[in-house]
Design goal:
Elements lengths: L4 H9 L2 H9 L3 H22 L3 H17 L10 H19 L27 H6 L3 H12 L4 H8 L3 H19 L14
Helix pairs in contact: 2-3, 3-4, 3-5, 3-7, 4-5, 5-7, 7-9, 8-9
């Protein structure tokens, strides 16, 4: 049955908590509005975690299906976007571990692939900076800062020691700060004369 323009407008202006309540009562249109509102943010988080665009789409779809099945469990104690992001992040991590794309316990002393030299682009966006991290660093930083998980929750989701997750997050954040901060040679730059 098609929804009329008034019903669509009502859903579009409703608060997420109202939509969750309607979806829990069986209103698929209300849940569809939640997907419309938060789908691109979830896919973006998954891409920042390292998922290829098609994999991000697949995992996001799986996350929304899982959320629909568990919608009655959402109590509104936090934002719906944070809740669905955590579901998506956990599903991605499960897929990531299953495919054995990286070994979290491996030494993460990899070299940065940061551009350098006179031809390097001075403007680097966050997604490029995240891609420069090792896979374990990228996943840990994305879980803790993109999906809003605590270090302990990320460690549980990854089935990794808490200290390992904390180390990957610290190294990843240090690399991101270094990569995203403006160049500072401590006054050592040579001045160009006009």
């Amino acid at each position: 049955m098609a929804m009329g323009p008034i019903a669509k407008q009502r859903l579009a202006s409703a608060h997420d908590l109202d939509l969750v309540g309607l979806a829990a009562a069986g209103d698929r249109s209300a849940f569809g509005e939640l997907v419309r509102r938060h789908g691109s943010a979830v896919r973006g988080l998954l891409r920042r975690m390292g998922a290829e665009p098609s994999a991000a789409d697949d995992v996001a779809q799986d996350a929304f299906l899982a959320a629909f099945e568990q919608i009655a469990e959402f109590r509104g104690e936090g934002a719906f976007r944070a809740w669905i992001s955590r579901i998506a992040a956990r599903l991605y991590v499960k897929r990531w571990r299953k495919e054995a794309r990286a070994d979290l316990l491996a030494d993460a002393g990899e070299l940065d692939a940061a551009p350098s030299g006179p031809g390097a682009d001075a403007r680097i966006d966050l997604d490029d900076a995240l891609r420069s991290l090792s896979a374990p660093e990228r996943v840990c930083v994305s879980l803790c800062y993109g999906a809003g998980l605590s270090h302990a929750e990320a460690a549980a989701a990854l089935n990794a020691p808490l200290g390992t997750v904390k180390s990957h997050v610290k190294r990843g954040l240090d690399k991101l700060r270094s990569r995203l901060s403006p160049d500072d040679d401590g006054g050592q730059r040579s001045k160009v004369s006009a």
